[in-house]
Amino acid sequence: MKWFKNNDFKVYDSRPHGLKLEGCGDFAYNYDRKHAYLGYGFRTDKEAYNLVKEVIDFTGTEFHSLHLVSELCYHLDTAMLNLSQGHVLVFPPAFDTHSYNLIKEVNGEDNIIELSEEDCVQNFVPNAIPIHEGDKHYVVGMAFSPELHAKLTDLGYDVLITPYQEFRKSGGSIRCSVLDIGI
Questions:
Q1: pTM
Q2: How far, in Å, CA of 102 to CA of 104, rounded?
Q3: CA-CA distance, 132 to 54, in Å (whole number)?
Q4: For residue 112, what are the β-bridge partners?
Q5: Is 136 helix (H, G, I), strand (E, B) or coil?
Q6: pLDDT tier for residue 24 given thresholds of 50, 70 and 90
Q7: Could you count the other beta carbons within 10 Å of the beta carbon of residue 131?
Q8: CA–CA separation, 111 vs 107, rounded Å?
Q9: How far apart are the C-alpha atoms of 69 and 72, rounded to whole Å?
């Protein structure tokens, strides 16, 4: 943190408040940035959402807290992925009933693509990266079941697979190795 402070970055430390906030793994915008989500439960405290709102300007963005309840999904980016055309990949058992219903309400039930345990846990699909460039929509991930690959392709996404099995052994995948700077 010292380097960031010394280089005029605004730094906010949650530790003095006694709160756990794991960062980008528990935070996500939806495709048009009109909604933002903070996952809490295992590695981030619900109250951390107030700290995030002090640091990030959410003007024009509605903020939602989502309760993670499955130990299979310790971060938000292991349970859901917002895609560039408004679809949301979700592993329903990861969330309490209220949170899952909120995801459906905010995004529209027709835009929800429920993930199998295989795609969520083994393939780590929620940790993939959605990319939108011009009229092209991509989903870059480590692996996809044939059924999910076909569904995404039918919806107009180019599904790109990149080998990440070695990095996956660390507990993360593609999303964990990039920094989204919001451009």
A1: 0.89
A2: 5
A3: 29
A4: 88
A5: strand
A6: confident
A7: 15
A8: 6
A9: 9
Residue type, 113: I
**Contact indicator for 148, 125 with CB cutoff of 8 Å:** yes
pLDDT over 90, % of the chain: 61
Q: Tell me the C-alpha distance between 183 and 175, whole Å.
A: 15
What is the rounded distance in angstroms from the CA atom of residue 75 to the CA atom of residue 127?
Answer: 10
Helices (H), the chain: 2-6, 48-55, 97-107, 117, 146-154, 165-168
Token pair 């530790």 is found at 15
Cβ atoms 144, 125 nearer than 8 A = yes
Amino acid at 119: D
Per-residue model confidence (pLDDT) at position 140: 96
Partner residues linked to 138 by β-bridges: 131, 158
Alpha helical stretches, state H, 1-156:
2-6, 48-55, 97-107, 117, 146-154
Please choose, from the candidates 72, 70, 61, 67, the residue with its C-alpha nearest in 3D space to the C-alpha of residue 46. 67
- Using alpha carbons, list the distances in angstroms from residue 139 to 40, 47, 87, 136, 155: 25, 32, 11, 10, 11
